[in-house]
Design a protein that fits this description.
This protein is an alpha/beta fold. It folds into 2 domains: 44-162 and 284-306, Rossmann fold (3-Layer(aba) Sandwich), CATH 3.40.50; 166-282 and 315-345, Response regulator (Rossmann fold, 3-Layer(aba) Sandwich), CATH 3.40.50. The protein is built from 11 helices and 12 strands. The protein has helices spanning 2-36, 55-70, 90-102, 113-122, 166-176, 192-208, 223-232, 244-248, 250-260, 284-299, 335-340; strands at residues 44-50, 79-85, 107-111, 129-135, 157-161, 182-187, 211-216, 237-240, 264-266, 278-282, 315-320, 343-345. It has a 7-stranded mixed sheet with strand order 7-6-8-9-10-11-12, with helices on both faces. A 5-stranded parallel sheet has the order 2-1-3-4-5, sandwiched between helices. Strand 1 (44-50), helix 2 (55-70) and strand 2 form a beta-alpha-beta unit. The N and C termini lie far apart (99 Å).
Amino acid sequence: MRNLEKFTSPIKGIWLGILLLLLVSGILLLSDLPGKQTGKSGYKNIAVFKFSSRPLLDITERGFIDGLSQRGFNDGKNIRLTRYCAENDLPTANTIAKEIINKKFDIVLTASTPALQVMANANKNGEVIHVFAAVTDPFRSGVGLEREHPELRPEHLAGLGTFQPVEDAILIALQINPGLKKLGVPWCNHESCSEACVMIARKVCDSLGIELLEASVENTTSVLEVSNSLVARGVQALWIGGDNTVELAFDLMVKAGQNGKIPVFCNDPEHAKKGALFGLGANYYEVGLAGGNIAADILEGKKPSEIPIENVVPEKLFINLNALKNLKENWIIPERLIQHADSILR
């Protein structure tokens, strides 16, 4: 019997070790399962990636999440949401894009033109389904979309454009001051979204007999200097379209306007709260909701390439009456414009 135990004891030890190994492996597999499951009973991993923290993009991000929720996709229930923000830093944005691909997210939702471009460049092989919003002109962003041939597009890419109402904003400024003849715009010329807005402004101003003076901005720290230079050149107002760099330093642009006793107007309604005379632009919460609904369609089985890329601009107008104080020219807001506004700041 002792001789038999000499042989069976090592065998028992080996089997015990195998059982323990299998048990540990099973526990690790189960703990990792929620992140890997993509069926109805598991989680879909969703990344939300914005280029910077500012009201327009924060509102879009909230719209993304609420749009998904309204369709029954809730964080911790059947999806897992991870939020990323590059804080307007391109190297950080590139790192985030690579991480999203390496972690094999099911869908990434991006807010802003730079976030679209960075993510699309990193995701050329289509490893992650990509939904974009808060983009001025996706067809000018260099991500493989063609305006004339919408069917020629990356199969993993879907989203919507929101081209700021540049012409309407300038027309409103002309209503408030019919004597407007010289308008200044500081803009970052390496942003395709900003360039698209300025190109429209050139045509509109030319047709209205307004001289558009432009000045290039390299980064946020140069916004005040550049804006002051435009004021020194005699502009009667400062305007900004969809420019991520300048918008981050919008308060400096307003400061330059106040120093020169001229108003600032823009295509972001929220900037009326920061000193703009008025902001005419999109309701970016609704834009975000639309983006969230596109993601929900894809989660329910729709192919990204089946979803048309449309221009969605649910307009919103905020007017700041406080910005009329201490101006060197008469800027008088017509009553009909006040009645039309979504919000009046007094």
